[in-house]
Design goal:
The chain has 156 residues and is mostly helical. Helices cover 63% and strands 12% of the residues. Helix 4 packs across helix 5.
């Protein structure tokens, strides 16, 4: 923690999560880690939660809190299916994460161009991996189909 540029505290809209975040931040201050390097992130933000982002900010002495909206069931489904790229096209969470990254880059030493390029690099890697997996799956299906047709011809 002492050698990092920034510390990002991730919490959700539960009181216990915010209290735990506050305790960890206080511990870091006692360990002489400058609080100017702290970045707070409120994850899975919904309008129906009993604690808003403003309430969380006030509980943490009025610090700025970055937030990421709750993407709902679609996020869990698409991630479990191994399709994170679909989130970029279809879900509001993509815009929310993009806005959060832009704010994070402004509040930290990262440049927006660096963050965007690293995200784009990861996306292109995922796309290449997905294409490679699709090609391998098609080859398996074709080889399975050929083996099956040979087996059918032999038994006929």
């Amino acid at each position: 923690a002492r050698s990092s540029d920034n510390l990002c505290f991730v919490m959700d809209q539960r009181a216990t999560s915010i209290r735990a975040c506050r305790q960890v931040a206080d511990l870091c201050v006692r360990l002489q880690i400058p609080s100017a390097r702290f970045v707070y992130l409120l994850n899975k933000v919904t309008k129906n939660a009993p604690i808003s982002d403003i309430d969380a900010s006030m509980a943490l002495d009025g610090v700025e809190i970055l937030s990421v909206l709750d993407g709902g069931w679609a996020v869990d489904e698409l991630l479990s299916l191994g399709c994170p790229l679909e989130l970029l096209r279809t879900n509001i969470i993509a815009n929310s994460v993009s806005n959060m990254l832009a704010k994070f880059c402004v509040s930290t030493t990262l440049s927006t161009a660096f963050a965007v390029s690293s995200v784009n690099t990861k996306i292109s890697r995922l796309q290449k991996r997905r294409v490679r997996n699709n090609v391998q799956s098609k080859r398996r299906l074709l080889s399975f189909g050929n083996a099956r047709s040979e087996a059918v011809n032999v038994s006929a």
